[in-house]
């Protein structure tokens, strides 16, 4: 399991491009026949990519967790990014088409993957157990935001949240930009009570998203390709613009699950 450590705003302001990418960008989550795990000190979350490629894979419990199973003291949200997967949690099997999202709670048992698919996992520590729940594509709470004239028309699909699939601290869903729209999360914001991670997908290989990060008065950017993830500290803005429309999975963990608990960063004040 790879480890990413916390950085202060002052450290980030002095980083080179290579240092920023090494600290916050996860470029190679999906390796055929493998499960890759990245642990972040930001709220102790774990990002993972599972790519069965026709094999059966078991979600491991890395030695650093000191646990018999991955979910012994954790919960996880699992998004089927592409393809069709069969996911087993304990003794229950779930068929997951592309766009489906599965929540598995603390103590749910061993997690196994099969099929020809890429699956993205976001995990956080859990203090109690909530039931394993499958959400099919489009079955969550949908919010339509933005305007075509501002190039930010998008559909937000909320799956794991306070009024949807219950969890200890994970809040998770998928945003799809409409054709012709390229901006996400603009005007930007921070939320000091939660960290967030973005997985960008539905991008051609020759397209990129310019992901904005850093303090509102000291912004930096990352050039992000298809199926790459960004770790965003609670003090950092997280917004972006693509060379064409795309989708992204957003996932948060921290002190509360209030989706609209944000501290706005007006674009006129960004530097």
Do you know the CATH topology? Jelly Rolls
Low-pLDDT stretches: none
CATH architecture: Sandwich
- State Rg: 17 Å
Broad shape: globular
* End-to-end CA span: 35 Å
Tell me about this structure.
This protein is mainly beta. The strands form four sheets. Strands 1, 3, 4, 5, 6, 7, 8, 9 and 10 form a nine-stranded mixed beta sheet that branches. The chain has a seven-stranded antiparallel beta sheet with strand order 2-19-16-21-13-12-11. The termini are far apart. It is globular, with a radius of gyration of 17 Å. Helices cover 5% and strands 48% of the residues. It has helices at 9-13, 17-24; strands at residues 2-4, 25-26, 34-40, 46-51, 57-58, 74-89, 92-96, 101-104, 111-125, 133-135, 141-145, 154-160, 171-177, 183-184, 188-190, 194-201, 209-215, 218-224, 228-232, 239-242, 247-254, 263-265.
Features:
271 residues; mainly beta; Jelly Rolls; nine-stranded mixed sheet; 2 helices; 5% helix
Task: Give the topology.
Layout: E1 2-4, H1 9-13, H2 17-24, E2 25-26, E3 34-40, E4 46-51, E5 57-58, E6 74-89, E7 92-96, E8 101-104, E9 111-125, E10 133-135, E11 141-145, E12 154-160, E13 171-177, E14 183-184, E15 188-190, E16 194-201, E17 209-215, E18 218-224, E19 228-232, E20 239-242, E21 247-254, E22 263-265
Question: Gist?
Answer:
5% of the residues lie in helices and 48% in strands. The chain is mostly beta strands. The model has no long low-confidence stretch (mean pLDDT 95).
């Amino acid at each position: 399991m790879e480890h990413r450590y916390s950085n202060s705003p002052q450290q980030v302001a002095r980083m080179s491009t290579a240092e920023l990418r090494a600290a916050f960008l996860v470029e190679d989550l999906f390796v055929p026949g493998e499960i890759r795990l990245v642990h972040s000190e930001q709220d102790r979350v774990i990002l993972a990519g599972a790519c069965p490629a026709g094999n059966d894979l078991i979600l491991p419990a890395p030695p650093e967790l000191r646990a018999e199973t991955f979910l012994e003291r954790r919960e996880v949200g699992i998004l089927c990014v592409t393809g069709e997967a069969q996911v087993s949690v304990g003794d229950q099997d779930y068929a997951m088409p592309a766009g489906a999202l599965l929540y598995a709670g603390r103590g749910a048992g061993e997690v196994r993957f099969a099929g020809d698919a890429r699956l993205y996992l976001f995990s956080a520590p859990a203090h109690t157990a909530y039931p394993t729940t499958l959400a099919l594509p489009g079955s969550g709470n949908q919010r339509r935001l933005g305007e075509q004239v501002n190039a930010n028309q998008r559909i937000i699909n909320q799956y794991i949240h306070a009024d949807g699939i219950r969890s200890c601290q994970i809040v998770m869903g998928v945003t799809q930009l409409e054709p012709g729209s390229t901006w996400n999360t603009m005007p930007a914001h921070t939320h000091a009570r939660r960290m967030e991670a973005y997985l960008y997908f539905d991008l051609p290989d020759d397209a990129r998203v310019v992901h904005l990060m850093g303090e509102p008065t000291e912004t930096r950017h990352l050039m992000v390709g298809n199926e790459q993830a960004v770790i965003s500290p609670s003090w950092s803005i997280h917004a972006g613009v693509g060379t064409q429309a795309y989708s992204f999975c957003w996932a948060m963990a921290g002190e509360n699950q209030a989706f609209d608990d944000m501290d706005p960063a007006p674009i006129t004040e960004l530097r």
